[in-house]
C-alpha cells in the first residue's frame, strides 16, 4: 500500500507535467460516438442502478433529437425527436429510467426511458425566452425537487416544485434591462441552505432567495459570462466567459460572492464548464474546438485536448467509474462537428 501510494504521488505530477508541456502530444479520446445528424448541443451520462453493469450516455442535437448509447457495447440503442425542429440545450439524468431535456423556445420535458420506446411523462413550458440558457434541477429532500428554467422574457427565471408540478416563484430583477439576458441558472447548496445563482449578460452573478423572489447578494465581473459550475465540497465555482478570461469565485457562510482568481486562456469563448465529481479537476469546452483541463486547487493548466473540428458545445463527467472505458471518471464532449468524444485522463 505504501509503495503504491508513493508511485502514485511520483507518476501523477509527472503525467501532469507531460500533458502540460506544449511539446508533448495530448492523449487521444478513448472512443468517439457518432450517428448524430446535426451538431451535438447537450450531453449527460445516465445514472446507474444498483447492481447494473451497463453505462449509458445521452446526447441532444441541434435538430431536437436525443440519442442514447450503451457504453458497454459502444452502440446507439435509442433515438427520438424530443423537441421538434429546435435545438436541445440541456439534458439531465436523475435516475436510470428518467431523462430530462430542454428545447430552445420550447419546454423542459421528462422522459421515461426504461422501455425501448421512450415516452413523455411531464412538460414544463418556457415562457417567451429566446436565449440559449440551460435549466437546472436540485433534489432538496425525498419529497421535493426544484427545477429552474429560463423565462419569462429574456431576464426572468421560473422556479418549479417538480413533484407537485407547482410554480413556486418568478425571479426578475427590478431593473431587469440593466442586467441583460439571463445566461444560466445554477442551484447552490451550502449545508442546509439552497440558493439559486444566476448569470446575466451584463456580467452580474446573483444569488437569489428563490422562495421569496429576493436578491441575497451579487457580484459584477468585467466580461460577458457564458457558463457556470460549482463544487459543493470546496464551495467554489468557475465562470466561463465570451472572452479569454475565466473567473473562480467563492461563496462564504454569509452568502457573499467574491472572486478568488482571474486567469486567461489562449483563445476567446467558453461554451461549457464542469468540475469533476471528486472536485480535483475542472474542464472547459471552447469555441476554438479545444477542451482544456485545470487543477481545481491552483487553476494550473493540465492539458489541452484536441480532437474536434468545430466548437465544443457541451461537456460532462461521468457520475462514477466506467470500467468499459478504462476505469475512473470519463469526460464527454459534444461538438458542432456532430460527434461526442470520450476521454479518460488523470485517473
UniProtKB/TrEMBL annotation:
Does the UniProt entry include the keyword Signal? yes
Q: Where is the signal peptide?
A: 1-17
Against SMART domains, the record matches this protein to: WD40
Q: Does the keyword Transcription regulation apply?
A: no
Q: Which UniProt keywords apply?
A: Repeat, Signal, WD repeat
Write down the superkingdom of origin: Eukaryota
Q: Where are the WD repeats?
A: 305-347
SUPFAM superfamilies listed in its UniProt record: WD40 repeat-like
> Per its UniProt record, what Pfam families does this chain match?
WD40
Q: Which InterPro entries match?
A: WD40/YVTN_repeat-like_dom_sf, WD40_repeat_CS, WD40_repeat_dom_sf, WD40_rpt
Q: Name the chain's protein.
A: Guanine nucleotide-binding protein subunit beta-like protein 1
Kindly list the organism's lineage: Eukaryota, Metazoa, Ecdysozoa, Arthropoda, Crustacea
- Supply the gene name: Gnb1l
Amino acid at each position: 500500500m505504501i509503495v503504491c501510494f508513493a508511485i502514485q504521488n511520483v507518476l501523477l505530477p509527472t503525467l501532469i507535467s507531460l500533458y502540460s508541456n506544449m511539446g508533448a502530444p495530448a492523449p487521444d479520446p478513448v472512443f468517439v460516438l457518432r450517428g448524430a445528424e446535426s451538431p451535438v448541443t447537450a450531453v449527460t451520462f445516465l445514472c446507474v442502478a444498483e447492481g447494473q453493469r451497463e453505462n449509458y450516455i445521452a446526447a441532444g442535437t441541434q435538430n431536437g433529437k436525443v440519442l442514447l448509447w450503451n457504453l458497454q457495447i459502444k452502440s446507439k440503442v435509442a433515438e427520438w425527436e424530443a423537441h421538434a425542429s429546435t435545438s436541445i440545450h440541456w439534458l439531465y439524468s436523475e435516475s436510470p429510467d428518467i431523462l430530462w431535456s430542454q428545447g430552445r423556445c420550447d419546454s423542459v420535458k421528462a422522459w421515461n426511458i426504461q422501455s425501448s420506446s421512450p415516452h413523455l411523462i411531464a412538460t414544463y413550458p418556457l415562457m417567451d425566452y429566446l436565449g440559449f440558457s440551460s435549466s437546472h434541477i436540485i433534489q432538496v429532500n425525498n419529497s421535493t425537487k426544484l427545477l429552474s428554467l429560463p423565462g419569462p422574457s429574456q431576464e426572468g427565471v421560473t422556479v418549479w416544485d417538480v413533484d407537485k408540478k407547482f410554480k413556486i416563484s418568478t425571479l426578475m430583477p427590478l431593473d431587469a434591462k440593466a442586467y441583460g439576458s439571463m445566461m444560466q441558472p445554477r442551484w447552490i447548496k451550502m449545508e442546509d441552505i439552497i440558493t439559486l445563482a444566476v448569470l446575466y449578460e451584463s456580467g452580474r452573478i446573483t444569488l437569489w432567495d428563490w422562495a421569496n423572489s429576493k436578491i441575497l447578494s451579487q457580484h459584477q465581473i468585467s466580461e460577458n459570462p457564458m457558463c457556470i459550475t460549482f463544487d459543493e465540497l470546496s464551495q467554489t465555482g468557475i465562470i466561463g466567459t465570451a472572452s479569454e478570461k475565466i473567473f473562480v469565485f467563492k461563496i462564504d457562510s454569509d452568502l457573499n460572492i467574491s472572486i478568488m482568481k482571474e486567469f486567461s486562456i489562449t483563445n476567446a469563448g467558453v461554451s461549457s464548464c464542469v468540475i469533476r465529481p471528486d472536485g480535483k479537476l475542472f474542464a472547459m469546452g471552447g469555441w476554438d474546438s479545444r477542451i482544456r483541463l485545470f487543477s481545481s486547487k491552483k487553476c494550473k493548466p493540465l492539458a489541452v485536448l484536441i480532437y474536434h473540428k468545430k466548437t465544443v458545445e457541451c461537456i460532462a463527467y461521468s457520475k462514477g467509474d466506467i470500467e468499459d472505458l478504462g476505469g475512473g471518471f470519463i469526460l464527454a464532449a459534444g461538438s458542432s462537428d456532430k460527434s461526442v468524444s470520450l476521454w479518460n485522463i488523470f485517473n
